[in-house]
Amino acid sequence: MASKDENSYGKILKGLSMFGSVEVFQILINLVRGKFVAMFLGPQGMGVSSMFTSASNTLTQFSSLGLNLAFVKEVAANKEESDKLAVTGRMAEMLIRITSLIGAVACVVLAPWLSRISFGSTELSWQFMLLGVAIFLRISVQGYKAILQGLHRVKTLSTTSLAGALTGLFAGVPLYYFFGTRGIVPAMIVLQLTLCGFYYFGVRKYMPRSKIKFERKLHSPIIRKMVATGMVLLGASLINTLFTYLINIYIRQYGDLSHVGLFNAANSVTMQYAGVVFTAMALDYFPRLSASAGNAVKMRGIVAKQMEIVAMIATPLAILLIATAPIIIRLLLTKEFLPITPLMRWLGLSILLKAIAYPLGYIAFAKDNRRLFFWLEGVICNILYIGCSLIFYHFYGLMGLGYGAVVEQGACILIYLLVNFKAYGLIPDKGAVVETSVGIILGTCGFIATIAMSGVWSYVMCGAVFAVSAWRSVTGLKSRIKRE
Asked: Model pTM?
């Protein structure tokens, strides 16, 4: 009964709204932190902060070996059996310590080189050595967070994230004020330390404790499975990063350097806007899907419900982004970036398609079919990404990148549907098909209103489509929750 409740429309919506609210709040906290960095450190200090952040992100990505989602999957799959869960948790914590140490040592060893390529001298080597502490803590944070995510402790994850972020903000800002650029790395350490403390005690509270000692024959298969899963995720992520870099090179070489900046600005703003939905979905949906991987009927129901709810939430949000693109650009960028308005609207439409594809893309991974997941996410979808981007840019210039994004996401939906049907006999039910179809139609109508009309009428028509979409979403969600 608890399992049924956990996968009801009400529970899914509650999880999405809670994680979405936390994500919005964390974005606001990051904006506030960025404001203080700008005030106390100035443009040069912001540049220094960006270099340390980039180095931290890169080393963290490589050192964590993509294990976080692997932890989520294994913990979620074993959470009903306390003995297996205790062993899984113990092995996960051991891997967290190992990968955290790898990241810290790598940063310390590479400190002189990182300082040289980042700032042109080895003068800041000591700060990169100190950054190793922040990386150690950050990898630990991500690991403990993944364990709680696998346990599906929605309330704990939400309150812990907020408490840690707020504590880090209030403790870190004074360091910018008193120490200037020398306070950047200590502030990063303070933030990760507070988050690590909160997440660590959360894991201690909810994960069954076990005093088992590591036995190679008994526990190596568990570790190998998690590492293999993590490496698949890391590989897919690295291919995407490489292809994005190649796209930027192609645009610079065959187009204009300004196009690189405009495309990345539009893409960054769009993904930041949509990231609230995608992050909330990843935190809430994947643990439930992994826990039901052995039950085809139950999994189909979870996927269908998720698709319905995502379509109802993402459609009005996508239409709102399409309608208010010029306002968002002025708020987050400057008026010099207004030429990317049409591109952002195309990307807004692609985001709606991406949201619909998202629940389908996780199925192979939840089923533990690593090879299929890698070919889908790492190879096929990334080839579509770079192929559509380059072809459409070649023929249509900057706007072609928007056309390519829509074609790519539409193709991904069709591929996911075909592969999941062939591999698992899984097809969305009538409710999911109807809701996603209506969502795509409404999103397309809102988009057409912005390109077929101009001035006030464009906003009026797009606003009307948004109102219809929002009304459908609210009434649809209420009726689904009421009939359960």
From this structure: 0.77
